[in-house]
Automatic annotation (TrEMBL), chain A:
Pfam family membership, one: BPD_transp_1
Name of the protein in question: Sugar ABC transporter permease
InterPro entries: ABC_transporter_permease (IPR051393), MetI-like (IPR000515), MetI-like_sf (IPR035906)
Positions of the UniProt region annotated as Disordered: 1-26
Transmembrane segments: 32-52, 96-117, 129-149, 179-206, 227-246, 284-306
From TrEMBL, chain B:
Transmembrane segments: 51-73, 110-132, 144-165, 177-200, 221-246, 277-300
Family: Belongs to the binding-protein-dependent transport system permease family.
Membrane topology, record value: Multi-pass membrane protein
Phylogenetic classification of the source organism: Bacteria, Bacillati, Actinomycetota, Actinomycetes, Kitasatosporales
Residue ranges occupied by any ABC transmembrane type-1 domain in the UniProt entry: 106-300
Protein name as catalogued: Carbohydrate ABC transporter permease
SUPFAM superfamilies: MetI-like (SSF161098)
Species this protein is from: Streptomyces ureilyticus
Length: 316, 315
């Protein structure tokens, strides 16, 4: 009875059992139920708004959903239909290009930013505050902002900047050839400062005496980065990579706000396609199958990366 | 991704084994050993290069904000004439945005963010207290479930969630078109539960033991003894929660019955698709949607950055 009460990791209360007030004994059941009482709101909300929808989604992916006629069991038909639909395959393709490009770019730029802005002076702190702004701004706001920065005529903001260095007006979001890259650039812009913060935390943990020792051994800056800094921030980098990949796969808002999947489907991604299927074309079964596939891939990736990481850490 | 372990004001919480001890006097090591690239703090070529690069970073990451703010107050803001300051300063854009109901959308957003955050924090504190301060059967399972809510991409469950919102299981209420359609789903956020639970585990238990012997009930214990000690962690959970809720897009979109239910971020697309109004008004709306996150960020910046770093550095 007292055992259920004892806070984790602390030796049992020194109060002998016989001295415990009687009310505590009487409430044995109540004591056991107590943690569940505290957990109830969270578990209930998670159940109703996370796990039930997840289960419902998996269930519906096996049906042809017909609002007034009743659902019809179709087995894996939705999956085969979705996976043979060339528009959906294009969307997966775009998701991969966008995801890999966005993740790699954001990590690279984040790393460079972290190296540039590492330090304790006031001006550096101010700079970090300013550079971090894209992360705290709602994605929809960032999207509206970039739509205007990307204004396709030669006097648009980015085009006039490009004009200074002698590059012609780029159509950005208006052209199927450039639209996906433009979305990617915005993704890098949002993701890089976020990665910067995590990498900075990693950099702060690097032993300074190692830098001194490296200087004494006369190694070059590159060697120092490669052999002292990088190994030390590897855990931080691993997290950055995991987060970036998962974030990229489920990308929705950026694309939806910037292009809505256009022009000509050139920026259609996994989730915008599923959204169109589900809400515009009312193909709930197909949309559920598409979502279930994305869920499976995300879980697989998360588990794989987690496994790799724990194995890597055990080795060291 | 996984459980945040420490809420340390210094993002240096990375790994104790390699952490530079705080006591070590800073000035004994020359500044060039203080950063990975060995930046020097004396004027010179390196310094000039660094300043140049910093200005470039500032231009890339902060300048766009200036252009949209100036555009929001510029009389003839078109996408094509964005600049760093308004050429013809005016409040017309704001007024037109107001006529298009931007303040109603803004109120929706505030209600959702306020209610959602309150619910999220309450739920997280209660759950974290149970996880950190009690031992019970199924604890590991509950932990895993909360972790799952964190990893489960919200977008993936959007379509079935919209069905659930239209007809909540068992009780059969239609939440669509109400603020609860967004508030309730953001209530259970594993990240904030984990963050608070980790923090509560670090609090020494002596005070609680004493209070328990005095017969203080569990709820009073949480409210009067544990919670006041958790203020730093509550700050982190609060600011991250706010940013997370304010950033919601798909959820308010599917929870809305008609456009008047939109939050201000979703409503920006309504403004944009209105053929009668120009970019200036869309920018005015964007600025209005931007201000709350900006205020929260600038006030609680330290909490936010340490939260992200703490949540991430420990695998």
């Amino acid at each position: 009875m007292t055992a259920t009460l004892t806070p984790a990791g602390v030796p049992k209360s020194p109060v002998p059992k016989s001295e415990a007030p009687k009310s505590r004994r009487r409430g044995g059941y109540r004591r056991a139920a107590l943690p569940w009482l505290f957990l109830a709101p969270g578990l209930l909300l998670a159940l109703v708004f996370k796990f039930v929808p997840m289960g419902k989604g998996l269930w519906l992916s096996l049906f042809e959903v017909r609002p007034f006629l009743g659902d019809k069991w179709v087995g894996l038909d939705n999956y085969t239909r979705v996976l043979t639909d060339h528009r959906f395959l294009d969307a997966i393709n775009n998701t991969l290009i966008l995801g890999i490009g966005q993740a790699a770019g954001a990590i690279l730029v984040g790393f460079v930013l972290a190296l540039l802005l590492e330090g304790q002076t006031r001006s550096l702190k101010f700079l970090r505050t300013a550079v971090f702004l894209p992360v705290v701004t709602a994605t929809a706001v960032v999207g509206e902002m970039w739509r205007l920065l990307y204004y396709p005529t030669s006097d648009g903001f980015l085009n006039s900047v490009l004009g200074v260095v002698g590059l012609g007006p780029v159509p950005f979001l208006d052209n199927p050839d450039t639209a996906l890259w433009s979305v990617m650039a915005m993704g890098v812009w949002i993701g890089a400062p976020y990665n910067m913060v995590i990498i900075l935390a990693g950099l702060a943990g690097v032993d300074r005496t190692l830098y001194e020792a490296a200087a004494m051994d006369g190694v070059s800056l590159w060697q120092r980065l490669r052999h002292v800094t990088l190994p030390a921030i590897r855990p931080a980098l691993a997290i950055v990579v995991t987060l970036a990949v998962i974030r990229s796969l489920r990308v929705f808002t950026e694309v939806y706000v910037l292009t809505g999947g256009g022009p000509a489907g050139s920026t259609e991604v996994w989730m915008t396609r599923a959204y169109t299927l589900g809400f515009t074309r009312n193909d709930i079964g197909g949309a559920s199958a598409a979502s279930a596939l994305l869920l499976a891939v995300t879980l697989l990736l998360t588990v794989t990366v987690y496994r790799l990481r724990t194995r890597g850490e055990a080795r060291r | 991704m996984s459980a945040p372990t420490t809420v340390d004001p210094a993002p240096a919480a990375a790994r104790p084994s390699v952490r530079r001890t705080a006591k070590e006097p800073r000035h004994t090591t020359p500044a060039r050993f203080d950063t990975a690239l060995g930046w020097s703090d004396r004027p010179g070529l390196g310094m000039a290069l660094r300043i140049l690069l910093c200005l470039l970073a500032l231009a890339v990451f902060a300048a766009p904000f200036l252009t949209i703010i100036s555009g929001a107050f510029d009389e003839n803001a078109r996408g094509s004439v964005l600049s760093f300051y308004p050429h013809h300063a005016t409040l017309t854009n704001m007024r037109v945005a107001g006529d298009r109901g931007i303040w109603d959308y803004f109120t929706n957003s505030l209600v959702i963010a306020g209610g959602g955050l309150l619910l999220q924090l309450t739920v997280s504190v209660l759950a974290a207290y149970a996880l950190a301060r009690h031992r019970f059967r199924g604890q590991a399972l509950v932990m895993t479930l909360f972790m799952l809510t964190m990893m489960l991409p919200e977008e993936v469950i959007a379509i079935p969630l919209s069905l659930v919102l239209g007809d909540v299981p068992v009780v059969g209420i239609d939440l669509k078109g109400t603020a609860f359609g967004v508030i309730l789903p953001v209530g259970a956020w594993g990240f904030s539960v984990m963050l608070l639970a980790e923090f509560m585990r670090e609090i020494p238990t002596e005070i609680e033991e004493a209070a328990r012997i005095d017969g203080v009930g569990e709820f009073r214990m949480l409210w009067q003894i544990v919670l006041p000690l958790c203020k730093p962690a509550l700050g982190v959970a609060g600011v991250l929660g706010f940013i997370m809720i304010w950033d919601q897009y798909l959820l308010p979109l599917i929870a809305a019955k008609d456009p008047t239910d939109y939050t201000v971020t979703v409503a920006l697309s309504v403004l944009r698709n209105d053929p009668e109004i120009g970019s200036g008004v869309v920018l005015a709306g964007s600025v209005i949607a931007l201000v709350p996150s900006l205020v929260v960020y600038l006030l609680l910046q330290r909490s936010l950055v340490s939260g992200i770093a703490a949540g991430a550095t420990k695998g």
